[in-house]
Amino acid sequence: MSETTQANPVFSVRKLWKVFGPKAAKVPGDQAYAGLSAAELRARTGCTAAVRDVSFDVHPGEVFVVMGLSGSGKSTLVRCLTRLIEPTAGSLVMDGEDVLAMDSGRLRELRRHRASMVFQNFGLLPHRSVLDNVAYGLEIQGMGKAERREVAARMVDKVGLEGLGERRPGQLSGGQQQRVGLARALAVDPEVMLFDEPFSALDPLIRRDMQEEVIRLHHEEGRTMVFITHDLNEALRLGDRILLMRDGEVVQLGTPEEIVANPADDYVRDFVRDVPREQVISVRRAMRPAADGEAGTGTALAPGALVSEAIEAVARTGEPARVLDGEKLLGVVGHEQLLAVVAGNGGGAGTSPAEEAAEAAVEDAAEDDSAGADRDGDSASGASESDSGAGDKDSADHGDSDNGKAVAGV
Ligand SMILES: Nc1ncnc2c1ncn2[C@@H]1O[C@H](COP(=O)(O)OP(=O)(O)OP(=O)(O)O)[C@@H](O)[C@H]1O
């Protein structure tokens, strides 16, 4: 649960910049440009800072979502990770290795074996069969024909395209074509998969299918994924953590619950305004301390249970539900706390004395837990660093806490 026990990050990005335009290298680090808006910078220098001073870690096994409106810098940022776009300044480390110092051979290796990309427009070769498209990355790696076709056939089955291996991409629906893209990325068995808005061209039902496919694959394989989207619902559904960008900068980084419960500013608040909060916020944020006599009754819920589950329980039984961590009673949730979450004025950190007291109860319980068991195991993987202020601590370690900006999850 602490960052000390966490495995080394897959990607570690610090103070990364990508500036397009004349004399781009002069922009990062020049105080004269630091406070300018994107439009002012463009007017003054002719440059676009697509990625501005961005820092974050991607942890092994997490789905890390990069979200933001069109033009916010998502694609540029993710392409910088494998240097498909060359960063202008900053540092970029993959598994402890400095990516910016890699020569072209090492970089090719990285792109072919360690990080594979799934694109919005599928990027399939039209004259090749599905099987040969899926095998393409293996062919580039130099794998022999029989072996690669065998691997490809397994991947085709894995993504639900059994029996379609001999078709051409043009004979498939959009959703099926994207499954081919997915299978092709999986075939090389990469350490991390990078998705650039892969489902935005698909209609909503197919899109939902594909999201479930990604969730299924993620659960089955625990593979690290970096997923770009401009769709908040997609981000909330898929992301263990979400990096929210605006004009090339990080506005907030956190779990879906943190972002919905505690938006960093009005921009994020606006972004999440229509999210059904009860389906994202957990009872550990909503609970109040138990009163005398409440310890023994009411439905028992885990701290990570969603408020929507608690609503169902409280409506059914007519009494507050208990929030239990194992045997330990952390607090209770009744009508008032649950309605407050739905109404948008509950479930944020420290928004009421009752919630502060409830948070203190969680912290006490955590301190009591001398065995250090992973009590966040019931929630998204990124949650392990959520409420503890670990992000603040680390950002100080890295000297990244300037501007009061959410420095991302390090
Ligand atoms: N090659 C380039 N030259 C100049 N400016 C560029 C270049 N590529 C991107 N930009 C600019 O950088 C900014 C970020 O673009 P980027 O494509 O990363 O955004 P995005 O968030 O991925 O957008 P979308 O969701 O529309 O794909 C935009 O202002 C864009 O116009």
Which features characterize this protein?
410 residues; alpha/beta; 2 domains; 4-stranded antiparallel beta sheet; 16 helices; disordered C terminus; P-loop_NTPase; ATP binding; Glycine/betaine ABC transporter ATP-binding protein; nucleotide-binding; ATP hydrolysis activity
Structural description of this entry:
The chain has helices at about 30-35, 40-45, 75-80, 105-115, 130-140, 145-160, 175-185, 205-220, 230-240, 255-260, 265-270, 285, 305-315, 335-345, 355-370, 390-395, and strands at about 10-20, 50-60, 65-70, 90-95, 95-100, 115-120, 190-195, 225-230, 240-245, 250-255, 300, 320-325, 330-335. It has about 400 residues and is an alpha/beta fold. The chain folds into two domains: about 10-270, 3-Layer(aba) Sandwich (Rossmann fold); about 285-380, no CATH class. A hairpin with a 2-residue loop joins strand 9 (about 240-245) and strand 10. Helix 5 crosses helix 6 (about 145-160) and helix 6 (about 145-160) packs across helix 7. It binds adenosine-5'-triphosphate. Adenosine-5'-triphosphate binds next to strand 2 and helix 3. Adenosine-5'-triphosphate binds near residues 50, 68, 73 and 230. Belongs to the ABC transporter superfamily. InterPro entries: AAA+_ATPase, ABC_osmolyte_uptake_ATP-bind, ABC_transporter-like_ATP-bd, ABC_transporter-like_CS, Gly-betaine_transp_ATP-bd, P-loop_NTPase. Pfam families: ABC_tran. It comes from Streptomyces oceani.
